[in-house]
Design brief:
Chains A, B: InterPro entries: HotDog_dom_sf, MaoC-like_dom, MCH/BMMD. The structure is a homodimer. Chain A is of the alpha+beta class. Chain A has four helices and six strands; from the N terminus they run ββααααββββ. The first copy, chain A, has one domain: Hotdog Thioesterase (Thiol Ester Dehydrase, Chain A, Roll).
Chain lengths: 146, 146
């Protein structure tokens, strides 16, 4: 989506990413990387016996991080990813779930210095149709002239 | 910090984590894991020649994810990490920077069902004293009785 300049964006426009399956390897890699070995993510026995989900679930940050890899971002366009409002983890992502992004532009603000802020709703959705993560993201993008 | 029950928390209490050095390996692992190979994080030549930082910077989500590994969380306590408000990436984290967490409890809400919501300001701070990430996090925690 971020392969065009600020002027080419429109409020209400939408974009959908390709999908990615969240594997057991992803859970292990993310625990190893982050240091977050919380049993709900890393202990199969505990997750099956002691949690309402009856299985391991992916870390919220894992799903959100995978989301950044599904965004198309070109360096000529994106100046900075500068923040998130109201991030919610609303449903669990299980091993072998396949997630994709659904974006909708909700605000465009010209900064008057060759850049503008694109605000969009991001939903991360899985194959069942359930939304697992919702967030409002803000991206600083270049204008044509810049 | 999350190794005690809801009743034991107090508004204004603070907690500081140990540190972790963000290495070049971390940047590579995070790109490989997330699929985010944006040149600012992954292309040394580009980062040195074409960006105001003159070097690669860590992905915002990398720093935030490392932050989750620095939280102490016990499964008897934490029911769910359910969201973030107002996440801002305010300064860059470079390779070899060492970050730690600084938490302050700002709100406690008893849910009346054996759990309560702990809201806290989280800052991720580096060795220079600069804050790199700010966020308001919400954690659902068990009460003693639960």
């Amino acid at each position: 989506m971020f392969n065009k300049k600020f002027e080419q964006f429109e409020v209400n426009e939408t974009w959908k990413s390709r999908g990615r399956t969240i594997t057991e390897s992803d859970l292990v890699m993310f625990s190893a990387f982050s240091g977050d070995w919380y049993p709900l993510h890393a202990d199969k026995e505990y997750a099956e016996k002691c949690t309402p989900f009856k299985q391991r679930i992916a870390h919220g940050m894992l799903v959100l991080s995978v989301g950044t890899g599904l965004l198309q971002m070109e360096p000529e366009v994106v100046v900075a990813f500068y923040g998130i409002e109201k991030l919610r983890f609303i449903n669990p992502t299980f091993i072998n779930d396949t997630v994709h992004l659904e974006l909708e532009v909700i605000d465009l603000k010209d900064k008057g210095n060759g850049t503008g802020v694109i605000t969009f709703n991001q939903k991360i959705v899985k194959q069942t149709g359930e939304t697992v993560v919702t967030a409002i993201l803000k991206m600083l993008a270049n204008k044509e002239a810049n």
